[in-house]
Design brief:
heterodimer; A: alpha+beta; 20 helices; globular; B: alpha/beta; Glutaredoxin; five-stranded mixed sheet; 5 helices; 19% strand; elongated
Chain lengths: 666, 177
């Protein structure tokens, strides 16, 4: 009964989404206010029925109702309760439902935080989001219904994919989806503006916090995914340039360009075409990511069940949504006038450079990801493009970007003098250079050109950001106390500073790990000691441990430094009982300056095991840096000025209303 | 105008490629070893550890090499196909016992039937690396000169045998040695 309610609620949600698409948009085109007024209540109802549907599926998982095919395929009675709940999005059907649920949630948020917006704008935005929802709901109901029943009912479920039984992966997909789907808001704003022909700085101000929040979610999602791969795959890597990773990284790059481009459009009324195109692209790439992951056109470690019928549907949907929006862009963009003029040396130029570099980086990744597909399509054979290509093209694009990140904030809008700015920043660059020369020797006792370059730029980015904050402090009134000074600085400035410091810290991490990590792959006998990178690893044997739904070979490795015990690590090789795949759990001792990482391989003979040992300097800085970027984005999105504007506009609205009421009364 | 149309044009070109891509199976990567002689190796035989098994065994006849292990679930799935193929007596099937426990492997063949003429024991998986093995099961077909002519990744199905393996072996048998 419960699954049928869920299924039925999904059908109702589809009907509401259709209404949500057609009525408000027609209303906005014909300026019929009653029709536009439909947008908010219908969007809320749509969200309510999605919640009901999602709750029903979750209930079926908790109760282990194996008469539902999707539950039988992805759950098991032995599965712990928290994994039963997360198993809902463990495979295709459920993750689609989660996708739509989040779209509903974002739309709901738009209905709440849009009081200050003109009615036709709100109507169009909600209508466009409704259209996206129609596409995904139809896809779910027609090709991937999670509520399908089976008979005879199996006694036991086939269990959740063991790869997904990890706390990191419980929250990774929802965060990623929140980011993907979140870009639909900025997208809807862009399309609404193109439809209405009103692309002004107000439009940029409205979309900016939405785009930033979506970007924050995406950043967190990607970071968690990388962190999970490090812990779970047992290769000691943190980024593999896997097609699915790339699929999430491309919208991130474009999203990063978008949030910067929005700043120019808001403050200077410039870059309008850029910003609209980036908003369309960010969401298009989110959709493309969904297509790549779900259609099976690319091989990847994220081997999901694939089906060409689904691929054809998503592709058609992509063609309509993306093709339609780009066509609309092509028709309307020539008429868009960007007012702000700027000179070669200005903050606009820095941000333009930022846009171009990020967009080119995205294209190189897109080409690398799809290259095997292109070749195969013209029957030129099958190849796979690996990390060497991506590193070779991506790194040279990112180095100048980090350089620009340091300079950009110091440049004035419209026209700046290069000499002035350089004079200000030469000290900072020298600090960076000193760090770049000195730090590698402190850390590893050696260096290389690439290390010098990376660390100098990392230090440059951190200190330039701090210096910018310091400059802002000095600029304010000298009579106030330090705390008052600090309070006066807008949150957006703190956000930017934090995010740019995050970039520097991230660059530190990447540079040090790539240059100075040490790894050894060797057979180890029980009781054997191996020395590596100043640490001694002692292998104390393997025992069998039983988990709730797996059995594990758990090794014990003691790590010593200078004859002092540092850590006891338990690398594991788990075999999940139902699906019988072996899974690696690395034993990691994480530290601020280094990780020691041990992963257990195959048993070689009765006494020896294959073992992989890694020493990874500064690897945690990668995720700390990414975390700071996300935090910076969050601060920027919560800047007071968005709310102040809201309040001021509300006051105006009230005044207008009371005036109208007075007129009506008289 | 063209400047503004560029994104949408690029996008539809991309869509075209994606559409073609949907109907191609990306997991079918041709092995670079196809058309090349079987990589050299010498490994102990499962049946007779003192006797060594080498690639010379494949010379002078069409032969099949199957990579398997008792730990491998998919190998169990294709086991009856191999037994069936062995019964037809078309070409000798050799086994590469991959990263396995020797005693368990012997027991497995005793319990579930033995389709193999002989098995090479690759406990460390070193030889499998030379052969470009992704994982078990994989099946190679060599011609009379010991040159690899076909590679099948994953468990064999009845259709694979009927539609691909058997016709290929017939063709190879007709080739001059």
């Amino acid at each position: 009964m419960i699954p049928e309610i869920g299924h039925f609620a999904l059908v109702i949600a589809l009907c509401l989404a259709l209404v949500q698409t057609i009525v408000p948009i027609l209303g906005a085109q014909t300026q019929t206010s009653q029709w536009m007024a439909v947008a908010k209540p219908v969007a809320r109802g749509h969200f309510l029925f999605l919640i009901i549907s999602y709750a029903c599926l979750t209930y079926s998982f908790i109760k282990s109702d194996f008469s539902v095919l999707y539950v039988a395929n992805n759950s098991n009675t032995a599965l712990p309760i928290y994994y039963k709940i997360s198993a809902v999005w463990g495979a295709h059907e459920g993750s689609l439902l989660l996708w739509v649920l989040m779209l509903g949630a974002w739309t709901y948020a738009v209905t709440i935080f849009s009081r200050s917006l003109p009615n036709d704008m709100v109507a169009r935005v909600i209508g466009i989001m409704g259209f996206v929802s129609v596409g995904f709901l139809l896809f779910t109901l027609l090709t991937s219904n999670p509520f399908e029943r089976i008979f005879p009912v199996p006694l036991e479920g086939r269990d959740l994919n063991p790869l997904l039984q990890d706390p990191g992966l419980v929250i990774h997909p929802p965060m990623l989806y929140m980011g993907y789907v979140g870009f639909s808001v900025a997208f809807a704003f862009a399309i609404a503006a193109l439809l209405g022909g009103k692309l002004d700085s107000a439009w940029a101000r409205w979309s900016r916090p939405w785009a930033t929040i979506a970007w924050v979610f995406l950043t967190i999602g990607i970071t968690l995914g990388s962190w999970w791969a490090y812990h779970e795959l047992g290769w000691g890597g943190w980024w593999f340039w896997d097609p699915v990773e790339n699929a999430s990284f491309m919208p991130w790059l474009v999203g990063t360009a978008l949030i910067h481009s929005l700043a120019v459009t808001e403050k200077r009324s410039s870059f309008k075409n850029w910003t609209v195109l980036l908003a369309i692209l960010a969401f298009s790439l989110s959709l493309l990511g969904t297509f790549l992951v779900r259609s099976g056109v690319l091989v990847s470690v994220h081997a999901f069940a694939t089906d060409p019928a689904r691929g054809v549907y998503i592709l058609m949907f992509l063609a309509v949504v993306i093709g339609g929006s780009l066509l609309l862009y092509a028709l309307r963009a020539p008429k868009i006038k960007s007012i702000g003029q700027f000179e070669l040396v200005s903050r606009e130029t820095a941000l333009l450079l930022n846009n171009v570099l990020l967009l080119v980086a995205m294209f190189t990744i897109l080409v690398g990801t799809l290259y095997p597909l292109f070749l195969d399509a013209i029957n030129a054979g099958k190849i796979s493009v690996g990390p060497p290509y991506f590193n070779a093209v991506f790194v040279p694009l990112m180095l100048p970007l980090v350089l620009v990140v340091g300079v950009g904030p110091f440049l004035r809008w419209k026209k700046a003098t290069l000499a002035d700015t350089l004079k200000k920043l030469i000290k900072i660059f020298i600090i960076g250079l000193i760090i770049g020369i000195g730090l590698p020797f402190l850390v590893a006792g050696k260096t290389s050109i690439l290390v010098l370059l990376g660390i100098t730029l990392g230090g440059w980015s951190i200190f330039a950001a701090l210096y910018y904050l310091f400059k802002n402090l000095k600029r304010s009134d000298s009579k106030q106390s330090a705390i008052q000074h600090l309070k006066k600085i807008p949150r957006a400035t703190y956000g930017m500073t934090l995010a740019h410091i995050g970039i520097g810290i991230f660059v530190f991490g990447v540079t040090f790990v790539n240059a100075f990590e040490v790894e050894k792959e060797l057979p180890m006998k029980v009781g054997e000691k191996v020395e590596m990178a100043g640490y001694e690893f002692m292998f104390n044997g393997v025992r069998t441990v039983q988990g709730p739904n797996y059995s594990s070979k758990m090794g014990t490795v003691d790590v010593y430094k200078d004859n002092k015990a540092v850590a006891r690590l338990y690398p594991e090789k788990r075999t999940y009982l139902v699906q019988q795949n072996p899974m690696t759990e690395a034993g990691i001792d994480s530290g601020f300056l280094r990780d020691v990482y041990v992963s257990l391989g195959e048993q070689i003979n009765s006494e020896a095991w294959g073992m992989r040992l890694y020493y990874k300097p500064f690897i945690q800085w990668i995720w700390i840096g990414a975390g700071l970027m996300a935090l910076g984005g969050l601060l920027a999105a919560l800047d007071r000025r968005y709310r102040l504007k809201l309040k001021r506009e509300k006051v105006v609205e009230k005044a207008v209303k009371s005036k109208e009421a007075a007129i009506a009364a008289s | 105008m063209f400047k503004y149309l560029l994104p949408v044009i690029l996008f539809f070109v991309l869509c075209g490629f994606l559409f073609i891509g949907l109907y191609k199976d990306p997991s079918k990567v041709d092995s670079p070893l196809i058309g090349k002689p079987a990589p050299e190796f010498s490994l102990p035989r499962l049946e007779q550890p003192n006797d060594l098994f080498s690639e010379k065994e494949f010379l002078g006849k069409v032969s099949i090499l199957n990579v398997w292990g008792t730990w491998c679930f998919a190998c169990k799935q294709e086991h009856h196909i191999l037994l069936d193929l062995a019964k037809r007596n078309i070409a000798p099937i050799y086994g590469l016992n991959y990263k396995d426990d020797t005693e368990q492997a012997k027991m497995y063949l005793r319990d579930f039937g033995n389709p193999f003429v002989s098995n090479a024991v690759d406990q460390l998986g070193r030889v499998a690396i030379d052969w470009g093995v992704y994982g078990a099961p994989e099946t190679f077909i060599m011609d009379k000169k010991g040159i690899i002519r076909h590679k099948h990744i994953g468990p064999l199905t009845l259709e694979d045998v009927e539609d691909e393996i058997l016709p290929l072996i017939q063709n190879l048998k007709n080739e001059a040695s």
